[in-house]
Amino acid sequence: MPRSTNSPPPKGGSVTLAMVARRAGVSPQTVSNAINSPDLLRPETLERVRRAIDEMGYRPSRAAQTLRTRSSKLIGYGIQPAPDGNPPPVMDRFLHALSQAADEAGYRILLFACPPGGPSLDGYEELLARHDVDGFVLSNTARQDPRQAWLAKRGVPFVGFGRMWSGRQIGDWVDVDGAFGTDAAVEHLVALGHRRIAFLGWPRGSGVGDDRAEGWQRAMRRHGLPTRGRRAESAGDVEAARTAVKPLLDAGATAVVAASDTLALGCYHALRERGAIPGRDLAVVGFDDSPTAAILSPSLTTVAQPLEAVGRECVRLLLARMATPDAPPGRVLLEPSLVVRDSARAAAR
After folding, report:
1. Do 223 and 285 sit in the same domain of this protein?
2. How many helices and strands in the chain, by DSSP H and E?
3. Which backbone phi and psi does 223 adopt, to 5 degrees?
4. Which pLDDT score is estimated for 284?
């Protein structure tokens, strides 16, 4: 009958599968099954082997796993340059969350460069031609995005951080409910006594931007508040937002819900030009809870996206797709949360 040696982990050098087998009192094949096919083992045997793996700090050889499963254990993620050269902080946080979730599942994220402009297939074809990845995570999804249909046609597993924003939904995706976030922002402002609540967003046609605008409109209608003449559009930079918000201020808005923290910062600049103070003279709410939101003066009330949950769900859906290619599409819509700070105060009486 096999017995455990109960020997301590080796001092120096790497732990091998055979060492783990001796410690657990099982065969090397049983250790391999515990790692790659745990359903083949009895629960008590699986628990004993996993305990030995944890105690000895054993890490399976990635190269050996690749040869055995024909899996690279790599997930491709295309990095697209931002128009102004400064990537939005929200994507940095998402990539960190995605990498951590992939690592916990035994995978690594393989980054590759994508050209500027809209989503394209550049980079995806090359990686697949070299068989370097097991699947892809897509971000910056947009209308007329060619990637989902192209990957689906070739049977390549993928998951999108973001909806398709077109009539026909393809593949698995995880997204944040932007409309829920801006709706919550309006509710908070109404509770503070505001009635002239404006919205500063991106030009119409942006899926994410239109979604956030819809939440503002929905909440305003629910409270019987006018929206006509209370919406302005801006490109994504601070200077453009500073200019775009001025007509809203001239029209007597007491609060502005912005589609991003960058647009909210443009509101700050426009107010200071007039000698006004955000929070005291105009309530401002942003979106994304960027690192600067908490250190602005006054600190910015904003909508925070649950990026850690997004990263975990993206990896979960992608691995499920790899395991069951013909399963129904997985769709996850997560709710953001309002982070209340100093820029949203009660309306002046």
Report:
1. yes
2. 13, 12
3. -95, 5
4. 98
